[in-house]
Design a protein that fits this description.
Strand content: 15-25%
Number of strands: 9
Radius of gyration: 16 Å
Strand order of the largest sheet: 3-2-1-4-5-6-9
Shape: globular
Structural class: alpha/beta
Low-confidence stretches: none
Amino acid sequence: MNTLNIILTGATGMVGEGVLLECINNASVESVLVIGRRPCGHTHPKLKEILHQDLSDLSSIESQVVGYNTGLFCAGVTSIGKKEGEYTKLTYTLTLGFAKTLSKLNPDMSFCYVSGAKTDNSEKGSSMWARVKGKTENDLAKLPFKAVYNFRPGMMKPTQGQKHVLPAYKYVSWLYPIIKLIAPNVACTLKEVASAMIHVSTKGYKKNILEVSDIIALGKAS
């Protein structure tokens, strides 16, 4: 696969916006369709946008999501303050509903899911969010995509020009070079995340779960 036609979610969040900015500036990307509840705030000749309130149900826009070969699912919510049922609905149910439709309409699609460091694929651990993310990873792998890649980044450095950056990152960004020096495989840049997604979507990869070290290596290789 040499040219990517991408469907991307989460563009109004830090991760999704960072990935979007890198994608529209990458020569391997022909087009990007952003699907979200609110406008992403960016315009570009490669970029098209659909405002849609429920990512778990794409039935009303199915005709508009056909013909794409890459899915980048960057939408997500924090588990802080949420009970397991609510978090499961906003994470597992939403992601699987979205992915099932894309896999049905685009069977040659590679699908990249932004999970999280220390996700629990056993689905039995004590951490609620890690169990839910683990179940999401496990069930995405069962869908008839060409390939599914689960990205598990840790701390991420935003891309220059981003509008949507988590407030906490504005205060701890100065720590990034120190963290990279002390623990290089704990943090990466959103440029590396996007570059790694483009790499696996065009060239494939030997692993379906990408930890920070994989993301950094592929980000530099792209």
